[in-house]
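User: Design a sequence. Structure:
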């Protein structure tokens, strides 16, 4: 696989700073090379500055709070803001298409908008949130971005190329998924998750624009908007809310982001290819069912009984397995999609044949059409667990896979991006300090 060349981004003015750390994936390139791509709104194009970046070095933020962040608005909200600022409503449709279909965030480059409107629109709207980004590339092609936000906090996003598991069909196809964060840090502190070790004092919800910006950054970095037909040459086919944070504790912003991303005149992502993963926030799952929030639902289960699950996940003390499964039944009654149950394989703790049989009995007793994702534990600094052996994982999988029922399907989600800390459960940022 060819290494990523950041110069392709020079043709676009994002209005934010990109810092790329390139890890060698071929051709003998060494890790640690970092190239800065910087821009300001007054520049016509990005400037590439090759220079060493000192440890802890960070740009200062000068966010303009007086301007409206257009990326976080629905089309209707953008139309209302456009009208309130004295512009015609159809300007909203023009800007919307430039942002989401062409990846352009510099209003002066929008050729179907009159030059006299450029300055007034620039004075009123920001088209991309203020952030910086470090790009890390794994040996297996997985890529991770660490995004520095305007308040100095940071989150991580991951792009997983290649073969993606279709949980409905139970098979893989050549696609690409973006793993998106919904919060800075996480309050839940699941024992096997690195994000849970981050300092609670720095926790906050991401805004709608900060959620969408993660997808737009990935698509720009992959050159999607340089194609003649963007939607026919799409590197991003799937979106999973499995990054940092609990999506259902940021329900409004996550739902609005999804509503924007599936718009026909925008990115036009398919709802059936968007997955929201929750640690088991029962009220949020019930609200999803009530609101007809029609995306794929994934449950971080990780144990077949309350005693073991409470040991691994504090949230189980608030929402035990019985309440969680009842909520899944309620959601499943509104959706024809299988519910995914994620199960991290921890050596000697939850990976015996007894646990596999108990998990199967649990899913069958609630008659839920299920897809079980077995996830080998991905170690991180200071973690107390070890991954199960491949033999144990295969034996566990065999119990579920060979069950004589159409209700339960099962697969192993083998690690991707483990060498750059991008695998499941490994995401965390220095702001934890």
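Assistant: Done.
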């Amino acid at each position: 696989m060819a290494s990523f060349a950041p110069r392709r981004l020079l043709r676009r003015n994002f209005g934010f700073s990109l810092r790329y750390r390139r890890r060698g994936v071929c051709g003998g390139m060494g890790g640690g090379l970092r190239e800065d791509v910087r821009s300001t709104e007054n520049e016509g194009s990005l400037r590439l500055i090759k220079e060493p970046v000192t440890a802890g070095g960070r740009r200062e933020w000068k966010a303009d709070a007086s301007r409206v962040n257009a990326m976080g608005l629905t089309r209707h909200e953008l139309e209302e803001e456009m009208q309130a600022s004295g512009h015609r409503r159809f300007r909203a449709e023009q800007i919307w298409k430039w942002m989401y279909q062409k990846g352009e965030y510099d209003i002066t480059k929008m050729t179907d908008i009159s030059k006299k409107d450029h300055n007034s629109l620039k004075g009123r709207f920001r088209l991309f949130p203020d952030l910086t980004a470090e790009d890390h590339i794994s040996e297996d092609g997985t890529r991770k971005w660490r995004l520095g936000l305007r308040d100095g906090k940071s989150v991580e996003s991951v792009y997983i190329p290649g073969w993606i598991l279709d949980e409905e069909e139970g098979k893989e196809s050549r696609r690409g998924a973006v793993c998106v964060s919904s919060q800075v840090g996480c309050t839940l502190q699941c024992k096997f998750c690195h994000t849970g070790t981050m300092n609670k004092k720095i926790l906050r919800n991401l805004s709608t624009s900060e959620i969408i910006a993660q997808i737009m950054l990935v698509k720009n970095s992959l050159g999607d908007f340089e194609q003649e037909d963007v939607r026919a040459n799409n590197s991003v086919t799937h979106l999973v809310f499995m990054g940092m944070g609990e999506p259902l504790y940021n329900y409004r912003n996550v739902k609005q982001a999804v509503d924007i991303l599936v718009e026909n005149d925008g990115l036009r992502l398919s709802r059936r290819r968007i997955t929201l993963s929750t640690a088991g926030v029962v009220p949020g799952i019930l609200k999803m069912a009530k609101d007809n929030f029609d995306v794929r639902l994934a449950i971080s289960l990780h144990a077949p009984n309350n005693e073991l699950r409470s040991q691994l996940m504090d949230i189980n003390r608030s929402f035990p397995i019985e309440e969680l499964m009842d909520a899944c039944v309620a959601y499943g009654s509104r959706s024809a999609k299988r519910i995914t149950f994620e199960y991290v394989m921890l050596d000697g703790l939850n990976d015996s044949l007894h646990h596999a049989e108990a998990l199967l009995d649990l899913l069958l007793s609630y008659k839920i059409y299920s897809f079980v994702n077995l996830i080998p534990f991905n170690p991180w600094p200071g973690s107390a667990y070890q991954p199960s052996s491949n033999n144990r994982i295969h034996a566990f999988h065999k119990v579920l896979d060979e069950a004589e029922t159409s209700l339960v399907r099962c697969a192993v989600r083998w690690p991707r991006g483990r060498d750059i800390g991008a695998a499941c459960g490994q995401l965390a940022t220095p702001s934890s300090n």
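The chain has a mean pLDDT of 83. DSSP finds ten helices and 19 strands in the chain.
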